[in-house]
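A.,

Following up on our hallway conversation. Structure tokens first:
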């Protein structure tokens, strides 16, 4: 991957206009799609397969008058008056008539004086409620209908006696559409200041912001365009905006910081860009992939709107990664060498004193202090974060309702008035519904059932218990004693469901508990049940990925443990603010209480990817320094331990600046969404801001160096059996660095060059080979498996275990994809028909063609292959393998190739193969062609 990214970075640097215009075109297409296709967001939550959802679907079919969304108007009489007085009753009933005729979407408008409904006037007769039922969900009600509804309420308010109060609210107005405020711009301003300090250049600091804003624009437009095909909640675009900005800035920062350091060291800007994208860009792709997997893993909950949210947010992250590895090097191509920034001012020497030495970096002082007392530091961090996590035990989950809207909102005022005049449960009625087609007296049946329901603890009253017009479905509408988001209401729902079998036996009704409140409780329960499997998924994923990357067991374990600490501490901060009320007023929290149900799972998913991001950037530098330290391979344990400690300190110092900047930027972007943010997004933003700050500065930059110092050289040990089965993933740019060191090898124009080539499984070791353009060579030996392995290795289809191999100008295994594009391969078997293979291998005028198993060809296949090889370019090099070399030589001679080198891979070989290019003689068993 690193070599691919390096080539991509070089190409983008050389063609900056093409890359920039391509991304601007993508923005234009996405924006046009949003304008043409955008259908708006939808805040109707559903959860297929649950009892509440099944109940709603049943009501839609048989009792539509109570299945859609609802609204309510509360009328509070002036002091000393009663809503039952004539001057109130007449105006209210006139308003009910106007509301019923308002629009076709209004199914019913119920007067508080209706004899069929109870509980719509409070016990003191000081307040009454007009209830409206609409066709469909809240998003199906037009803005015009809402405006007309407000007009009727305003007219009623004018008609009622002075001192009375009217307020409009209910499910229809229970959710708000979040938007972007000026405080989010403050986060970007802080990010810009951090970038200016990091890069010491205003122009360079603006580039990460530019790429991040462009990426967010594309992803946001794409999300709004997708509303034509999928249900997207209003929180989804803001979550994508928040994540896209944060990771977009950070990913560009990682690449540009590496590039700036290299340019300051004198590296050519183009070469530096290619290296930066190949090294830091590889880590960016890895970090982005972990975030993608974690976000897509939100589908574990089995809730459609949450799955859509995860996919949309992952799309924003994917765009940020793509822009980071393409547009960032393109912008560096515009900048050329003007990225070094203002040099740091050297410390001045005091008069008469000698010149001071280089100033010790703050990161060096920090990591030295941490690693000097690692056990004490580790205990302090773990105990401290454990204390911070205590409020997490108080977290309660619920879907948002009007009670969490700002106090200035009319829907919130209605919610509070209803709770004050009628009790908190009136804001979240529950519905029991079932089929009653077998009943001969449906009215009495529903009355008896309503009486039984009213006896259950937690039920304040039964407002309605009746069959529908066709007497095939009955409903019981009940008012709980507690608020919709109170845990006691969830307990009541479970208690009602516990009576299912009893009522089925007694009344022969298969009852389902449903309604807006029950749907929210079911979603919260399912999300709570999904947390454990999701946590196992992300932690297990981190263990696997980091084991592959770092070839270590302890590094993944410490990383996963640090992630757990960050998560529970982040939950603790959210609990302290939203449950305990700490700093709630300062953060403009509208109401202290349960938080939105999907906060924990989103926080776990997002923070996982970002935590792995910081882990990779810090620990990969430590690993690199340890591997390159000769003392790290010393047989003396004390020497290796000292090398490991040096690597921890030097690796931390080398990467701390970038990780510090990234953590500050992430924190600034997330925390900017807290003070004026939407009530649904506010706890998510606070949790992410707290989690990032804790993970970056306390866990990754404090706890991890301390634990690494405790582990010493053991941190980099891994069982041999595990090392063998793990795939090789290069996210540290080792292949790019290898190419740089071997840029001048082999020093000639060979199209195939191998030194000490080893393939352990095939028994091939120490092979030396040179094949010039247009040259021909035959590899022979006693093992057909070894010859096949060599053929596959040279053709880029198999990775060698050791040595050096360059084919068609590309170093293997890093450039295997390029080699496969420039090398043709013909693999023979005893029964294979080769009639099409040589043609395919020669297509595209390859620089090298590898033909394995020439001795297995029949006479007809021999003649066909000869005919095709005669048509090959004279500059195409041919490499054949055969157990009988004379057959291969004859085939090449028939094809017009007279200069042939024969190499016996079983023959003893000298340590080097500095042999002249082969001539017509082919007697040597070890030659260079």
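Then the amino acids I'd put at each of the 929 positions:
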């Amino acid at each position: 991957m690193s070599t691919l990214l390096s080539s991509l970075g070089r190409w983008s640097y050389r063609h900056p206009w093409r890359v920039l215009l391509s991304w601007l075109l993508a923005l234009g297409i996405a924006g046009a799609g949003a304008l043409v296709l955008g259908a708006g967001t939808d805040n109707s939550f559903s959860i297929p397969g649950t009892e509440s959802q099944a109940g709603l679907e049943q009501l839609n079919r048989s009792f539509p008058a109570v299945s859609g969304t609802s609204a309510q108007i509360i009328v509070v009489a002036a002091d000393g008056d009663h809503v039952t007085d004539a001057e109130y009753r007449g105006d209210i009933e006139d308003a009910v008539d106007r509301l019923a005729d308002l629009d076709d979407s209004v199914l019913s408008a119920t007067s508080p004086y209706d004899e069929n409904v109870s509980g719509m006037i409070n016990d003191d007769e000081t307040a009454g409620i007009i209830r409206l039922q609409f066709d469909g969900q809240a998003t199906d009600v037009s803005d015009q209908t809402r405006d007309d509804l407000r007009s009727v309420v305003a007219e009623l308010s004018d008609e009622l006696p002075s001192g009375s109060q009217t307020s409009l609210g209910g499910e229809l107005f229970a959710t708000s559409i979040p938007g972007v405020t000026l405080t989010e711009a403050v986060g970007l301003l802080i990010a810009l200041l951090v970038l200016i300090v990091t890069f010491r250049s205003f122009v360079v600091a603006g580039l990460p912001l530019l790429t991040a804003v462009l990426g967010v624009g594309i992803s946001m437009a794409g999300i709004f365009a997708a509303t034509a095909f999928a249900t997207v909640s209003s929180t989804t675009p803001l979550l994508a905006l928040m994540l896209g900005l944060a990771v977009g800035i950070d990913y560009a920062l990682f690449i540009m910081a590496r590039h700036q350091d290299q340019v300051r060291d004198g590296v050519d800007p183009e070469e530096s860009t290619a290296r930066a994208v190949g090294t830091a860009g590889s880590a960016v792709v890895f970090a982005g992939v972990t975030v993608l997997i974690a976000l897509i893993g939100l589908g574990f909950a089995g809730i459609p709107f949450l799955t859509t949210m995860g996919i949309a947010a992952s799309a924003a992250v994917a765009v940020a990664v793509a822009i980071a590895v393409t547009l960032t090097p393109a912008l560096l191509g515009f900048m050329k060498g003007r990225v070094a920034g203002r040099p740091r001012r050297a410390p001045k020497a005091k008069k008469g004193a000698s010149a001071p030495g280089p100033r010790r970096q703050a990161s060096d002082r920090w990591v030295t202090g941490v690693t000097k007392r690692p056990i004490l530091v580790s205990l302090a961090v773990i105990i401290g974060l454990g204390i911070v996590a205590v409020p997490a035990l108080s977290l309660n989950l619920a879907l948002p309702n009007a009670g969490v809207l700002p106090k200035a909102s009319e829907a919130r005022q209605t919610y509070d008035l209803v709770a004050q005049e009628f009790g908190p449960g009136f804001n979240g009625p529950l519905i029991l519904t079932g089929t009653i087609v077998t009943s001969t007296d449906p009215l009495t049946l529903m009355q008896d059932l309503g009486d039984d329901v009213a006896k259950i603890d937690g039920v304040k009253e039964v407002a309605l218990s009746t069959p529908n017009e066709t007497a095939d479905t009955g409903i019981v509408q009940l008012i709980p004693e507690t608020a919709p988001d109170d845990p006691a209401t969830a307990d009541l729902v479970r208690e009602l469901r516990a009576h299912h079998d009893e009522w089925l036996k007694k009344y022969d009704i298969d009852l389902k508990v449903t309604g807006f409140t029950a749907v929210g409780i079911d979603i919260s329960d399912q999300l709570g049940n999904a947390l454990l499997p999701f946590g196992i998924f992300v932690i297990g994923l981190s263990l696997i990925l980091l084991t592959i990357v770092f070839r270590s067991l302890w590094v993944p374990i410490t990383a996963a443990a640090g992630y757990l600490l960050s998560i529970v501490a982040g939950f603790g901060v959210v609990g302290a603010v939203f449950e305990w009320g700490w700093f709630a007023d300062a953060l403009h929290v509208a109401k202290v209480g349960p938080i939105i149900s999907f906060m924990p799972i989103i926080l776990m998913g997002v923070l996982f990817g970002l935590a792995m991001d910081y882990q990779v950037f810090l620990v990969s530098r430590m690993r690199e320094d340890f591997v390159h330290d000769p003392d790290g391979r010393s047989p003396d344990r004390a020497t290796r331990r000292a090398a490991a400690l040096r690597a921890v300190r030097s690796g931390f110092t080398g990467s701390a600046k970038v990780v510090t900047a990234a953590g500050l930027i992430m924190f600034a972007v997330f925390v900017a969404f807290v003070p004026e943010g939407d009530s649904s997004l506010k706890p998510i933003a606070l949790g992410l801001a707290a989690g990032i700050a804790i993970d970056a500065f306390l866990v990754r930059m404090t706890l991890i160096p301390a634990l690494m110092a405790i582990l010493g050289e053991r941190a980099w040990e891994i069982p041999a059996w595990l090392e063998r089965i793990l795939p090789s993933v290069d996210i540290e740019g080792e292949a790019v660095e290898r190419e740089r060191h071997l840029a001048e090898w082999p020093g000639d124009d060979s199209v195939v060059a191998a030194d000490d080539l080893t393939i352990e499984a095939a028994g091939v070791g120490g092979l030396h080979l040179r094949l010039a353009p247009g040259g021909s060579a035959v590899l022979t030996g006693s093992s057909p498996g070894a010859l096949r392995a060599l053929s596959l290795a040279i053709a880029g289809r198999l990775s060698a275990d050791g040595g050096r191999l360059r084919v068609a100008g590309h170093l293997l295994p890093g450039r295997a994809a390029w080699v496969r594009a420039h090398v043709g391969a013909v693999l023979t078997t005893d029964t294979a028909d080769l009639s099409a293979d040589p043609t395919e291998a020669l297509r595209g005028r390859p620089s090298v063609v590898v033909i394995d198993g020439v001795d297995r060809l029949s006479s007809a296949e021999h003649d066909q292959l000869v005919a095709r090889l005669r048509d090959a370019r004279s500059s195409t090099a041919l490499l054949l393998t055969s157990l009988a070399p004379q057959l291969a030589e004859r085939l090449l001679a028939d094809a017009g190739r007279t200069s042939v080198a024969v190499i016996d891979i079983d023959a003893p070989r000298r340590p080097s193969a500095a042999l002249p290019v082969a001539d017509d003689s082919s007697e040597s068993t070890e030659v260079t062609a």
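The first helix runs from residue 2 to 14. Curious whether your intuition agrees with the design.

B.
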